[in-house]
Amino acid sequence: MTKNVFKSMPLRKKMILVFCLPTILLFMVNMTLYLGTNRMLNSLDAVYASNNSLNDLSEALDNLQISTSGYLGTKTSDALEQYYIAEQDFANLLDKFDANKDDNEGRVLERNIRIMSSNYITLTSQAVESKRGGNVEKYKNYYDTATRLYNYIDTNITSLNNQQFVNNSKSYSAMMGTLQTIEELNILTLILIGMANLSFVVLIASTITEPLIKLAAAANRVSNGDFEVSLPQVKNNDEIGVVTRAFNKMVASIKAYITKLTESMETERRLKENELIMANHVKDAELKYLQSQINPHFLFNTLNAGAQLAMMEGADRTSEYMHNVANFFRYNIKKNKDVVTLKEEIELVDIYIYIINVRFAGEIQFVKTVDESLLDVKIPSMILQPIVENSINYGIRNIDWNKKISLSVYELGDYTCVSIKDNGIGMSQETITKILEGSYEGNPKKSDSNGVGLSNCIERLNIFYERDDVLDIISEGENQGTETLLYLPR
Length: 490
Hints:
Elements: H1 2-8, H2 11-47, H3 49-74, H4 77-94, H5 105-133, H6 136-223, H7 239-291, H8 296-312, H9 315-332, E1 339-341, H10 342-359, E2 364-370, E3 378-380, H11 384-396, E4 403-412, E5 415-422, H12 429-437, H13 454-465, E6 471-474, E7 482-489
Parallel strand pairs: 2-4
Antiparallel strand pairs: 1-3, 4-5, 5-7, 6-7
Helix pairs in contact: 2-6, 3-4, 3-5, 3-6, 4-5, 5-6, 6-7, 8-9, 9-10, 10-11
C-alpha cells in the first residue's frame, strides 16, 4: 500500500521528502546530542565549584591576615582602609557557607570553618580597635589569638579542599567516562542515520531519475528520426508518468502522421509536376500569342514611305532605309528567340528611331546614356521599341516644341534600370493607373502602330519575371513629359 502511495505521489512532494526528511532527522539528532553534551559540560563546571570557593576563601583569609598585620605595624590610614576591604571580602565569601547541621565529615569541617572564621573576624576587629585606642596590651593579645585561629582555619580549609578535590576527581572521572560513552554513541548514531539517509536519497533519486533517463534516451532517438524506438514503460502516476504517456502517444501519432504525409506528398508531387508542365505550356503559349500581335498596317505605311523616298532621292539612302526596315522586321519575326539581351533591344530602338526620323524628316532628337557593362541582362523581345513608339504616338507627335526622347541604362541597387523619357504632353495619374492595371483602352484611330502596346509589354514582363513591379510610369503633369522605368533584376 505504501509503495503504491509513493508511486502516485507528485514529483514535488517526492523532492521535498528527499531533501527535508533527512535534514529534519539530522537536526533532531544533533539537537539531542547538543543538549545532552551541554548538560554534561554544565555538570563538569559544577564539579570543581566547591574547590574554587575554598580557594577563594583561603586567599581572602590570607589577605585579611596580611592587612591586619600591616595596620598593626604601621597604623596608617591606607593600611586601615586595606584592612576594612579585606575584612569585607572575607565576610562576603564566608556568607556562602551554610550553617548546616549535617554529620558528614565534609559538612562538619565546613561548619567549623564558618564558626572559626566568624571568631577570627571578631578578634582581628578587636585588635585593630585596640591599636587605634593605644591599648598595646590588648591588641597584642587579640592579634596573637587571631593568628593562632588563622593557622587553624587555614589548616581546616586545606583539609576540606583536599577532601573535596578527591571526591570531585572521582566524580569528574565518572562524568568524563559517561561523556565519552555519549560521544561514541552519538558518532555511531550519526553514522547509522547518515547511511540510512544516503540509502533513502539514492532510492528516491533512482525512482525519479530512472524514468527520466529512459525517456531522454527515447526522445533523443526520436529527434534523430528513429520512430521505431522502444517506448518506455510507465510505472508511476506522477508527473514523469504523465509526460511519458504523452510522449508515447505523441510518437505513435507522429508515426501515423508521417505515413499519411508521405502518401499525401507523393500524390501532391505528381500533381505539382503536372501543374508545372501545364503552367509552362500556358506561359509559353501566352508569350508566343502576345508576340504575334504585330499590326500589318504598320508594315504597309513603312514600305509606302520607302517607296516615296526612292522616288525623291538617290538609291544610296533608299538602300540604307530599306536595309534598316528589313532588319526591323527580321527582328520582329524571329520565331525561336523569345528572350534577348538588353543590347539587342537597344539596337532595335536605334533602327526604329532611324525609320521614324526618315518618315518625319528627322524631327525627333534621340539621346542615349548607356552603361555598357549592363547590356547582357536578359529581357523578353519587343519591349523597348513599343514603349518608344508609345512615347512618339501619344507623347511628342503633335507638340509644337522640339521633340526629344532620352534612353538611359544605369545600375540601381540589385536592378538594371532602363529609363525611356519624352518631353511630350504628359499623362494624367488616372491614365497611368489604368495602364499599370491593364484596364486602359487606347485610341482605336491611332492605327499607325505595330500593335504591341504598353499593356502587352507589361503583361509579358510580369509573366517573364514573375513579378508585378517591373515597370513604372512617371509624369509630373500636363506638358511635362512622361518617363517609363523598367526595373530588371540582375
